[in-house]
Amino acid sequence: MAKVTYSALVDTIRGKLNGSIASQWKGINVLKSHPTPRQPRTESQQLVRGLMNNHAGDWYGLSSTLKDLWNRYASLLSKPMTGLNAYIKQNSNLDRYLGSGSAISNPPPTPSTPEAISGLSIAVTDSLNNTITWASPTGSSDYIIADYSFMAGLDDGSNPRWSFAGGDYADQANIVHNHAFPVGTVMRYRARVMDSYGRVSPNTSVTTVTVA
């Protein structure tokens, strides 16, 4: 924070000035830096933004009846959002994991979400592959989304960065995650269910394995 000295002609400044913010703090005129925010540029972030933009455009092609249905559906959700938000969120999930052509025009009949996965298990198949299995669900319309993170040691207080490990329909019974981590790397996994409306369940608890 920089202290500013003013003249007899100018005794105060407010607002932005050459990339800084002029204000008063406890009666003292100060200048604070105002960094320009950057748009995240990772591949995953750009993919998500692109999907959101596409579905935002699709929304305006819906009939007024469908928009009313989406707005009514959104009003029943526990998290406040508009029909547009719900439409974009759920169709972006479908598009991201199932590909183009999976988008829906009609909202779900109820605001419920899929039941969480039970019986998640991770097996170290070999030094390059881990096999993800689950007890339920087992239906052909449910899609399992598995994520992973990695760390150098068993620090449960760390803040993992999750990446997509793989996905498949629940009736396929397992997902094989191929990786390139060396022996001894500690890996964490979690999974969730996505239904045919793009709604997702809560994540499972985290399961940890060590590459062997």
Structural commentary:
- The chain is α+β, with helices and mostly antiparallel strands and 212 residues long.
- It folds into 3 domains: 2-33, no CATH class; 43-98, no CATH class; 121-210, Immunoglobulins (Immunoglobulin-like, Sandwich).
- Helices cover 21% and strands 29% of the residues.
- The protein has 3 helices and 11 strands; from the N terminus they run E-E-E-E-H-H-H-E-E-E-E-E-E-E.
- It has helices at residues 43-59, 64-75, 83-98; strands at residues 2-3, 15-17, 20-25, 28-33, 121-126, 129-133, 143-151, 163-169, 174-178, 186-194, 207-210.
- A 4-stranded antiparallel beta sheet has the order 1-4-3-2, with no helix packed on it. A 4-stranded antiparallel beta sheet has the order 8-7-10-11.
- The longest helix has 17 residues, at 43-59.
- The relative contact order is 0.13.
What is the succession of H and E elements? EEEEHHHEEEEEEE
Largest sheet strand order: 1-4-3-2
End-to-end gap:
51 Å
Radius of gyration: 24 Å
Question: Biggest sheet, open or closed, and with what strands and sense?
Answer: 4 strands, antiparallel
CATH class of the largest domain, anyone? Mainly Beta
Q: How many β-strand stretches?
A: 11
CATH-level-2 architecture of the largest domain: Sandwich
Estimated structural class: alpha+beta
